[in-house]
Amino acid sequence: MAVGGLVYAVTLALGIWWIDSIPADRGQLRGHIGYFVSGATGVLAFAAAVAVRIRALAPFGIRKITWKWAVAGVVAGAGVYWLNQFVALGYIAIFGNDTPQGDYQTAAGAGVLSLLVTLVLGGGLTGLGEELFFRGVVANTLLKHGVWVGVILSALIFALVHGLNVILPIAFVLGVVNAVLLRRSASVWPGVIVHVVYNSVSNIGFMFTA
Fold first, then answer.
1. At what angle do helices 167-185 and 154-161 cross, to 10 degrees?
2. Residue 188: is it exposed, middle or buried by C-beta count within 10 angstroms (0-12/13-18/19+)?
3. Maximum C-alpha span of the chain
4. Per DSSP, which regions of the chain are E strands?
């Protein structure tokens, strides 16, 4: 987890530097690159952890699942999306809307092609990369210290990485659900499905609010 975390931090810092080097008025490009960075960072961190461990992928939750777990992932993804609408409303009512996702909204609302790219990068790559690292590496490691530590602490770490803003409680809820799915199924794939569904629905929603 330490090696993966280091790689994640360094890669994310470089990614943020890359995004910040792009003019603010190019929100569509910044949004696409932002999603690419989010996904690629998780994949690289996961790969680093696997390389150090030098073991089969099963300990990281890379296990086959039945169709029932796949369906459960789709249903949970839709459920978490609607639950988080209320979580976001509660946060905004107290702290205001400090969302950092303006570029994502711009990218999703910049036409059909841009939306498709956003869905591939934001739904597919980001969902895969973040689950591989935060559930496959972080949650699996912490679950060795007990269910509460594994589920709550891994979800908190996942939330804090998203910053102190409206995304924090939203990410925490998603992190808890996916850590529970990981523990019950012993696989990261139900969580990947939840994440892909959640991010994809969110981006389709951004298309109408951009």
1. 140
2. buried
3. 48
4. none
Look at residue 208 and tell me whether its pLDDT is greater than 90: no
Token readout for 208 is 């109408």
**Alpha-carbon span 139 to 152, nearest angstrom:** 9
Closest by CA position to 47, among listed 34, 37, 29, 60: 60
Cα angle 167, 171, 173 (rounded to 5 degrees) comes to 125
The CA distance from 81 to 195, in Å, is: 10
The answer, as to whether pTM is greater than 0.90, is yes
* DSSP three-state, residue 145: helix
Q: For residue 191, which of 90, 29, 73 has the smallest C-alpha distance?
A: 73
**Selection from 208, 143, 151 nearest residue 174 by Cα:** 151
How far apart, in whole angstroms, are the C-alpha atoms of residue 130 and residue 198?
A: 13
Q: What local confidence, expressed as pLDDT, does residue 56 receive?
A: 83
The CA–CA distances, whole Å, from 145 to 6, 121, 183 equal 21, 33, 13
